[in-house]
Amino acid sequence: MTETGSTSNFFEQVYQIVRQIPEGRVTSYGAIARALGSAGSSRMVGWAMRAAHTANPPIPAHRVVNRAGILSGKRAFGSPTLMQQLLENEGVSIADDQVVDFAEVFWDPANP
Fold it and tell me: At 49, which helix (H) or strand (E)?
């Protein structure tokens, strides 16, 4: 398989996990990487999230945050507040670009 094919396959595996995140819950780039057996690939999960707008069916990319619950990917949404708005619409509280009560709303893809 070519490297591009490998990347495409990895991205699709990421998207399959992200589509499973329940409404009102969030997970992290690292948790997704660990669930895929690629613990050191958090950055690649981030790349997949940046390309998520091309995925079909659509994925809830707004539910993926960094390991501290910070909305580190918010720039990819085209509006500096859209990611926060989408999460708040699902009942997730945000303060200063960070998920409030992160541990309580965290969804672990390895133990859904």
Answer: helix 42-50
The predicted-structure confidence for 3-19, as pLDDT tens digits, reads as follows: 445 667 999 999 999 99
Say how far apart CA 89 and CA 48 lie, in whole Å.
24
- CA–CA dist 38, 25 (Å, integer): 22
Copy the structure tokens of residue 65: 């945050």
Q: Report pTM.
A: 0.90
Q: Which residues lie below 8 Å from residue 6, measured CB to CB, with a gap of 6+? A: none
Structure tokens, 85: 């708005």
Residue 108 is classified by DSSP as -
Separation between Cα atoms, residue 68 and residue 15, nearest integer Å: 21
* Contact call for residues 60 and 21 (beta carbons, < 8 A): yes
The pLDDT, as a whole number, for residue 2 is 38
Answer whether 68's CB lies under 8 Å from 80's CB.
Answer: no
Give the tens place of pLDDT for each residue, 69-82: 999 999 989 899 99
